[in-house]
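Handout for the seminar on molecular recognition.
Each group receives one record of this type.
Step one: identify the two inputs.
Step two: read the structure output and locate the region that could contact magnesium ion.
Step three: write two sentences on what you found, then compare them with the reference statements printed after the record.
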Amino acid sequence: MERSTIVRVHDGLHARPATRFVKLAKSFESDIELVKDDRSVSAKSSVKLMLLGVKENEEITVRATGADAIEAIEALIGYLENPHAGLEDDGAVQPQKQDTGKPAARKPAQGLPADGALRGVAASEGAAIGAVYGFFPAEIKHENRPLAANAIADEVLRLKQAIATVQKRMDASLAETGLAESDRGIVAALKDIANDDELTGGAIAIVEGGIDAVSAVIGATSKIASDFATMDDPYLNARADDVNAVGRQICLALLGQEDVNLDTIAEGSILVAEDIGAWDLARAPLKRIAGVICGHGGATSHVAIIARAHGIPAVLGLGRAVLDLKHARTVALDGDSGEVFADPDAGITGRFQAAIAKAGAEKQALTAYRDVTPRRADGTVIDIAANIGSLEEIDAAKEAGAMGVGLFRTELLFMRHIHLPSEDLQAETYSSLARAFAPHAVIVRTLDIGGDKPIAGVDFPDEENPFLGWRGIRMCLDRPDIFKPQLRALLRAAVHGNIKVMLPMISDVGEVRATKTLIGECAAELAAAGTAFAHFDLGVMIETPAAVLIAPALAREVAFFSIGTNDLTQYIMAADRLNPTVAKLNDVTHPAVMAAIELTAKAGTDAGIMVGMCGEAAGRPDLIPAFIAMGLTELSMSPSSIQRAKKCVLEGSKAD
Ligand code: PEP
Ligand code: MG
């Protein structure tokens, strides 16, 4: 039997979503195939699946034959229709969508020199200078040695043992407690490649055809690697390096050799390699590595992802030029511009050292503001809060000194699950948040999901303009079966701390009133059931031009405003926030947007309610003084911006 659907998995069946899909497929006995454009592959091979190049919004057919075919098709179709399938549950770092893998044209970090340099892909930001640690393992030769007919069986056995050895090494690496969660995801993906029948079966078939195992592995891996390299997707192109790295490990096991070991790398070294496997880097002593330079790789390669996750500056994709660095003693790299200097002269060295010292000192100095309570010149406390989307982010927010949460995006909770999250699961999540930040406020935003980002359990209509469509409060009010469990969960969580609730995409006072009616019904239902609950402050996001223009009326209905500058800017400027061709118009500092913010602030402060901001602009030091002057008393931002914002408020109040 078979069923077709449109793939909604965010960014398609890339690495982790593909391997998770394969894992799910393997849990069924049936033979399962995925069919796209008349090409069909086994759904039980991650490599084959990735090579099929299944993208988001493409039509795909799942075909199954066997005893559990119905269940298999149901589960796999459910997976394909879930936008966040496979993306969130292993802590793995995902490539950033804007990464293109092409050499970046960004500015050099902190005014570093732009001439006399080798140039590669700026893969992980920051500058570094240090002694070269060359990682140039010997090349493994492709001999194509013919085997005698009676030697073939033994060679196949040797190959199988070598594959098992590599798998065991990867398992041991995965079992190490010291391995960062993000790296664990990457090693797991490599292990999947080492387990994949496309690679192992391909190599075994070559040996069975009478060729030695090392050559067979090189042959099989280079075929798969070149298939990846020719796909029209930079992320999949970068998988070619992963396949080669796995092949190399199998060859080394066949030859009884150990790979070059990074354990001896000295503190502050710059790792220079023609090619380095993600597995080698993940298990290296990363704290001692000041920078990474590599001939291969791009911004979406796993090496880049590991470097970024650990804050190590990296320039990749330098090509053959990396060989010029082999004999250099010192090297300087700028991960913002992609520039590399071999044995830099005193001038360049001085400039790099100054830039590194400046960045380090800035970061260190900001930690002094962690526990500061910033106030306006008149003594009013300005709450610098965190924007988060999951419980996993609580620690980072508290560590940064967040004075509560100014925006908890509940979408992730809904996208994470194949089914809608239950009221109990939601109550538990919101309660944990409230407890973690008490006595500070935690502002939970009710579900803000639109036609462009469907969730399992909700049928979204096809819309010409999803951003102007059935999203946020509009959808919630039409679906009380989804909205009321969330409101009841929030009422229950309010018992455990300072929960506040805000409504997204408000453009009419009636939407607030209708929500209040539902909250009243929810409270009555909880009371009737004898379930503990407490009332919460209700606020609205100001992110539509309509909300700005009716702000005085809205202020009479709610306890606070939170300005969502991301959407407000796109709607005021009529410039899609996701469309790079109109990015110039999407500017929060445009006088039209600043005027809208000021109008909102005035309406809120005139009515005596709290006015905050949770759009990206809230963390901008160049704008914070203006927002404070307008009367905003809460700014919510990504945890990494909190200390700088506290400093900015403090210095602003001293200057007043
Ligand atoms: C905003 O629009 O500014 C906002 C904070 O919400 P989101 O970015 O989640 O749409
Ligand atoms: Mg918004």
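Reference statements: The chain has 23 helices and 20 strands. The domain at 149-255 is CATH 1.10.274.10 (Enzyme I; Chain A, domain 2).
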